[in-house]
Protein backbone atom coordinates (compact mmCIF):
# COMPACT_ATOMS: atom_id res chain seq x y z
CA UNK A 1 0.00 0.00 0.00
CA UNK A 2 1.09 3.59 -0.58
CA UNK A 3 2.50 5.57 2.33
CA UNK A 4 -0.20 7.75 3.94
CA UNK A 5 2.33 10.62 4.22
CA UNK A 6 3.24 10.74 0.52
CA UNK A 7 2.89 14.31 -0.77
CA UNK A 8 1.65 15.46 -4.14
CA UNK A 9 4.34 15.51 -6.82
CA UNK A 10 5.20 19.16 -7.58
CA UNK A 11 5.65 18.31 -11.27
CA UNK A 12 2.12 16.87 -11.35
CA UNK A 13 0.74 20.03 -9.75
CA UNK A 14 2.49 22.18 -12.36
CA UNK A 15 1.13 20.15 -15.29
CA UNK A 16 -2.40 19.90 -13.93
CA UNK A 17 -2.70 23.59 -13.12
CA UNK A 18 -1.48 24.49 -16.62
CA UNK A 19 -4.15 22.28 -18.21
CA UNK A 20 -6.85 23.69 -15.94
CA UNK A 21 -5.89 27.27 -16.76
CA UNK A 22 -5.89 26.50 -20.49
CA UNK A 23 -9.46 25.20 -20.09
CA UNK A 24 -10.52 28.42 -18.35
CA UNK A 25 -8.51 31.05 -20.23
CA UNK A 26 -7.85 29.48 -23.58
CA UNK A 27 -4.34 28.58 -24.75
CA UNK A 28 -1.57 30.30 -22.83
CA UNK A 29 -1.34 33.08 -21.93
CA UNK A 30 -5.12 33.24 -22.37
CA UNK A 31 -7.48 35.92 -21.16
CA UNK A 32 -10.31 36.67 -18.74
CA UNK A 33 -12.40 39.15 -20.67
CA UNK A 34 -14.46 40.22 -17.65
CA UNK A 35 -11.73 40.65 -15.05
CA UNK A 36 -9.28 42.30 -17.42
CA UNK A 37 -11.98 44.77 -18.49
CA UNK A 38 -13.21 45.75 -15.03
CA UNK A 39 -10.17 45.54 -12.75
CA UNK A 40 -7.13 47.79 -13.25
CA UNK A 41 -3.89 45.84 -13.62
CA UNK A 42 -2.34 47.82 -10.75
CA UNK A 43 -5.17 47.13 -8.27
CA UNK A 44 -3.93 45.20 -5.24
CA UNK A 45 -6.07 43.46 -2.64
CA UNK A 46 -6.63 40.42 -0.46
CA UNK A 47 -9.02 37.50 -0.62
CA UNK A 48 -9.97 34.93 2.00
CA UNK A 49 -10.29 31.27 1.09
CA UNK A 50 -13.21 30.23 3.29
CA UNK A 51 -14.97 26.95 4.14
CA UNK A 52 -18.71 27.14 3.58
CA UNK A 53 -19.25 23.69 5.07
CA UNK A 54 -17.79 21.59 7.87
CA UNK A 55 -15.34 19.01 6.57
CA UNK A 56 -11.74 18.02 6.02
CA UNK A 57 -9.65 20.17 3.70
CA UNK A 58 -7.21 18.95 1.07
CA UNK A 59 -5.63 20.42 -2.01
CA UNK A 60 -4.66 23.75 -0.46
CA UNK A 61 -1.09 22.94 -1.49
CA UNK A 62 -1.99 23.80 -5.09
CA UNK A 63 -2.73 27.47 -4.28
CA UNK A 64 0.80 28.86 -4.73
CA UNK A 65 1.15 27.13 -8.10
CA UNK A 66 -2.21 28.41 -9.33
CA UNK A 67 -1.55 32.05 -8.46
CA UNK A 68 2.04 31.75 -9.67
CA UNK A 69 1.03 30.51 -13.10
CA UNK A 70 -1.74 33.08 -13.43
CA UNK A 71 0.65 35.88 -12.49
CA UNK A 72 3.13 34.68 -15.11
CA UNK A 73 0.43 34.63 -17.80
CA UNK A 74 -0.72 38.15 -16.95
CA UNK A 75 2.77 39.55 -16.41
CA UNK A 76 1.88 40.66 -12.88
CA UNK A 77 3.37 40.12 -9.43
CA UNK A 78 2.78 36.78 -7.72
CA UNK A 79 0.33 37.04 -4.79
CA UNK A 80 1.39 35.77 -1.39
CA UNK A 81 -0.47 32.78 0.05
CA UNK A 82 -0.81 32.69 3.83
CA UNK A 83 -2.14 29.17 4.41
CA UNK A 84 -3.87 29.07 7.79
CA UNK A 85 -4.58 25.34 8.07
CA UNK A 86 -2.82 22.23 6.77
CA UNK A 87 -4.30 19.72 4.37
CA UNK A 88 -6.01 17.00 6.38
CA UNK A 89 -7.40 19.44 8.98
CA UNK A 90 -11.01 19.29 10.11
CA UNK A 91 -12.62 22.69 9.58
CA UNK A 92 -15.93 24.34 10.35
CA UNK A 93 -18.12 26.51 8.21
CA UNK A 94 -16.72 30.03 8.16
CA UNK A 95 -13.12 29.07 8.89
CA UNK A 96 -10.54 31.00 6.88
CA UNK A 97 -8.24 28.46 5.25
CA UNK A 98 -5.83 30.87 3.56
CA UNK A 99 -5.41 34.55 2.79
CA UNK A 100 -4.16 35.51 -0.68
CA UNK A 101 -2.73 39.00 -1.19
CA UNK A 102 -1.61 40.59 -4.46
CA UNK A 103 -2.87 41.90 -7.80
CA UNK A 104 -6.65 41.58 -7.87
CA UNK A 105 -6.63 40.47 -11.50
CA UNK A 106 -4.49 37.49 -10.52
CA UNK A 107 -6.72 36.62 -7.56
CA UNK A 108 -9.91 36.65 -9.63
CA UNK A 109 -8.47 34.78 -12.61
CA UNK A 110 -7.04 32.13 -10.27
CA UNK A 111 -10.26 31.77 -8.27
CA UNK A 112 -12.10 29.05 -10.17
CA UNK A 113 -9.12 26.81 -10.86
CA UNK A 114 -8.08 26.98 -7.20
CA UNK A 115 -11.61 26.26 -5.98
CA UNK A 116 -12.19 23.44 -8.47
CA UNK A 117 -9.11 21.57 -7.31
CA UNK A 118 -9.35 22.29 -3.59
CA UNK A 119 -13.11 21.73 -3.35
CA UNK A 120 -12.83 18.40 -5.17
CA UNK A 121 -9.94 17.22 -3.01
CA UNK A 122 -11.63 18.41 0.19
CA UNK A 123 -14.80 16.54 -0.72
CA UNK A 124 -12.85 13.31 -1.12
CA UNK A 125 -10.97 13.91 2.13
CA UNK A 126 -14.21 14.62 4.01
CA UNK A 127 -15.88 11.46 2.71
CA UNK A 128 -12.80 9.38 3.50
CA UNK A 129 -12.66 10.73 7.05
CA UNK A 130 -16.18 9.40 7.66
CA UNK A 131 -14.98 5.91 6.76
CA UNK A 132 -11.77 6.23 8.77
CA UNK A 133 -13.78 7.36 11.80
CA UNK A 134 -16.25 4.50 11.36
CA UNK A 135 -13.37 1.98 11.33
CA UNK A 136 -11.40 3.51 14.18
CA UNK A 137 -10.30 0.89 16.67
CA UNK A 138 -11.20 -2.09 14.46
CA UNK A 139 -7.74 -2.60 13.00
CA UNK A 140 -9.12 -2.37 9.46
CA UNK A 141 -8.19 0.41 7.04
CA UNK A 142 -10.22 1.99 4.25
CA UNK A 143 -8.71 1.81 0.76
CA UNK A 144 -9.44 3.69 -2.42
CA UNK A 145 -9.61 2.21 -5.94
CA UNK A 146 -8.80 3.21 -9.54
CA UNK A 147 -12.30 4.69 -9.95
CA UNK A 148 -10.94 8.20 -10.17
CA UNK A 149 -11.52 11.27 -12.34
CA UNK A 150 -9.26 11.04 -15.41
CA UNK A 151 -6.32 13.37 -14.95
CA UNK A 152 -6.99 13.89 -11.23
CA UNK A 153 -5.99 10.51 -9.81
CA UNK A 154 -2.93 11.89 -8.01
CA UNK A 155 -5.02 14.64 -6.37
CA UNK A 156 -7.87 12.34 -5.39
CA UNK A 157 -5.59 9.69 -3.93
CA UNK A 158 -3.70 12.43 -2.08
CA UNK A 159 -7.05 13.58 -0.69
CA UNK A 160 -7.81 10.04 0.48
CA UNK A 161 -4.57 10.11 2.46
CA UNK A 162 -5.50 13.51 3.89
CA UNK A 163 -8.80 12.03 5.05
CA UNK A 164 -7.17 9.15 6.91
CA UNK A 165 -7.48 6.52 4.19
CA UNK A 166 -4.87 4.41 2.44
CA UNK A 167 -4.10 4.15 -1.25
CA UNK A 168 -4.36 0.85 -3.02
CA UNK A 169 -2.57 0.50 -6.36
CA UNK A 170 -1.93 3.69 -8.26
CA UNK A 171 -2.57 2.09 -11.64
CA UNK A 172 -2.30 -1.04 -13.74
CA UNK A 173 1.50 -0.86 -13.62
CA UNK A 174 2.41 -1.24 -9.93
CA UNK A 175 0.27 -4.14 -8.64
CA UNK A 176 -1.14 -7.20 -10.43
CA UNK A 177 -4.80 -7.81 -9.65
CA UNK A 178 -6.03 -11.18 -10.92
CA UNK A 179 -9.79 -11.00 -11.49
CA UNK A 180 -12.32 -13.39 -12.99
CA UNK A 181 -11.62 -12.47 -16.60
CA UNK A 182 -7.89 -13.02 -16.12
CA UNK A 183 -8.59 -16.46 -14.65
CA UNK A 184 -10.80 -17.35 -17.61
CA UNK A 185 -8.11 -16.22 -20.06
CA UNK A 186 -5.28 -17.98 -18.22
CA UNK A 187 -7.23 -21.18 -17.53
CA UNK A 188 -6.99 -21.17 -13.73
CA UNK A 189 -6.01 -19.05 -10.74
CA UNK A 190 -2.71 -20.89 -10.43
CA UNK A 191 -1.92 -20.35 -14.12
CA UNK A 192 -2.72 -16.63 -13.87
CA UNK A 193 -0.50 -16.19 -10.80
CA UNK A 194 2.35 -18.08 -12.44
CA UNK A 195 2.05 -16.04 -15.61
CA UNK A 196 2.36 -12.78 -13.66
CA UNK A 197 5.30 -14.09 -11.64
CA UNK A 198 7.08 -15.11 -14.81
CA UNK A 199 6.49 -11.87 -16.72
CA UNK A 200 6.66 -9.35 -13.85
CA UNK A 201 8.45 -10.95 -10.89
CA UNK A 202 8.84 -7.61 -9.09
CA UNK A 203 5.15 -6.80 -8.55
CA UNK A 204 2.76 -7.70 -5.76
CA UNK A 205 -0.03 -10.06 -6.83
CA UNK A 206 -3.59 -9.73 -5.57
CA UNK A 207 -6.36 -12.20 -6.39
CA UNK A 208 -10.12 -11.66 -6.39
CA UNK A 209 -12.33 -14.37 -4.89
CA UNK A 210 -16.12 -14.59 -4.81
CA UNK A 211 -16.43 -17.88 -2.89
CA UNK A 212 -14.69 -19.85 -0.18
CA UNK A 213 -13.42 -22.37 -2.72
CA UNK A 214 -11.91 -19.64 -4.88
CA UNK A 215 -10.21 -18.07 -1.87
CA UNK A 216 -8.66 -21.35 -0.77
CA UNK A 217 -7.60 -22.12 -4.35
CA UNK A 218 -5.86 -18.76 -4.56
CA UNK A 219 -4.04 -19.23 -1.26
CA UNK A 220 -3.01 -22.73 -2.34
CA UNK A 221 -1.57 -21.23 -5.51
CA UNK A 222 0.56 -18.87 -3.47
CA UNK A 223 -1.58 -15.71 -3.28
CA UNK A 224 -0.79 -13.54 -0.29
CA UNK A 225 -3.45 -10.87 -0.83
CA UNK A 226 -7.11 -11.64 -1.53
CA UNK A 227 -9.99 -9.39 -2.56
CA UNK A 228 -13.14 -10.92 -1.10
CA UNK A 229 -15.77 -9.57 -3.45
CA UNK A 230 -19.44 -8.90 -2.69
CA UNK A 231 -19.66 -11.38 0.17
CA UNK A 232 -22.42 -11.16 2.78
CA UNK A 233 -21.02 -10.77 6.28
CA UNK A 234 -21.49 -14.42 7.41
CA UNK A 235 -19.68 -15.76 4.32
CA UNK A 236 -16.97 -13.14 4.68
CA UNK A 237 -16.35 -14.23 8.28
CA UNK A 238 -16.22 -17.88 7.20
CA UNK A 239 -13.70 -17.15 4.45
CA UNK A 240 -11.50 -15.04 6.73
CA UNK A 241 -11.39 -17.81 9.33
CA UNK A 242 -10.62 -20.49 6.73
CA UNK A 243 -7.85 -18.50 5.07
CA UNK A 244 -6.27 -17.53 8.39
CA UNK A 245 -6.22 -21.20 9.36
CA UNK A 246 -4.23 -22.01 6.23
CA UNK A 247 -1.90 -19.01 6.27
CA UNK A 248 -2.29 -16.15 8.77
CA UNK A 249 0.06 -13.98 6.72
CA UNK A 250 -2.42 -13.51 3.88
CA UNK A 251 -3.85 -9.99 3.71
CA UNK A 252 -7.60 -9.80 3.19
CA UNK A 253 -9.70 -7.06 1.67
CA UNK A 254 -13.47 -6.79 1.64
CA UNK A 255 -14.75 -5.13 -1.52
CA UNK A 256 -18.07 -4.52 -3.24
CA UNK A 257 -21.42 -3.40 -1.83
CA UNK A 258 -19.88 -1.69 1.21
CA UNK A 259 -21.72 1.09 3.02
CA UNK A 260 -20.85 3.20 6.05
CA UNK A 261 -23.53 1.56 8.17
CA UNK A 262 -21.89 -1.84 7.51
CA UNK A 263 -18.32 -0.70 8.03
CA UNK A 264 -17.74 -1.94 11.56
CA UNK A 265 -19.74 -5.11 10.92
CA UNK A 266 -17.51 -5.95 7.96
CA UNK A 267 -14.36 -5.04 9.87
CA UNK A 268 -15.41 -7.36 12.70
CA UNK A 269 -14.89 -10.34 10.38
CA UNK A 270 -11.14 -9.80 10.64
CA UNK A 271 -10.39 -8.35 7.22
CA UNK A 272 -7.44 -6.01 6.99
CA UNK A 273 -8.98 -3.58 4.51
CA UNK A 274 -12.26 -2.32 3.11
CA UNK A 275 -11.94 -0.89 -0.42
CA UNK A 276 -14.49 1.78 -1.31
CA UNK A 277 -14.70 3.07 -4.86
CA UNK A 278 -17.13 5.75 -3.74
CA UNK A 279 -14.35 7.65 -1.98
CA UNK A 280 -13.27 8.97 -5.36
CA UNK A 281 -16.13 8.36 -7.76
CA UNK A 282 -19.04 9.59 -5.64
CA UNK A 283 -17.77 12.18 -3.15
CA UNK A 284 -19.54 15.55 -3.38
CA UNK A 285 -17.29 18.57 -3.26
CA UNK A 286 -16.72 20.51 -0.05
CA UNK A 287 -18.05 24.00 -0.68
CA UNK A 288 -15.22 26.54 -0.51
CA UNK A 289 -15.24 30.19 -1.55
CA UNK A 290 -12.73 32.91 -2.32
CA UNK A 291 -14.06 36.15 -0.84
CA UNK A 292 -12.39 39.34 -2.06
CA UNK A 293 -11.99 41.97 0.63
CA UNK A 294 -13.26 45.47 -0.27
CA UNK A 295 -10.70 47.39 -2.28
CA UNK A 296 -9.26 50.55 -0.81
CA UNK A 297 -9.84 53.66 -2.94
CA UNK A 298 -6.71 54.76 -4.80
TrEMBL record:
Pfam family, one: QRPTase_N
Residue ranges annotated for the Quinolinate phosphoribosyl transferase C-terminal domain, each copy included: 124-291
Record EC number: 2.4.2.19
Gene3D superfamilies, alphabetized: Aldolase class I, Quinolinate phosphoribosyl transferase, N-terminal domain
Domain Quinolinate phosphoribosyl transferase N-terminal: from-to ranges: 32-122
Keywords noted in UniProt: Glycosyltransferase, Pyridine nucleotide biosynthesis, Transferase
Keyword Transferase recorded: yes
Catalytic activity from the UniProt record: nicotinate beta-D-ribonucleotide + CO2 + diphosphate = quinolinate + 5-phospho-alpha-D-ribose 1-diphosphate + 2 H(+)
Protein name: nicotinate-nucleotide diphosphorylase (carboxylating)
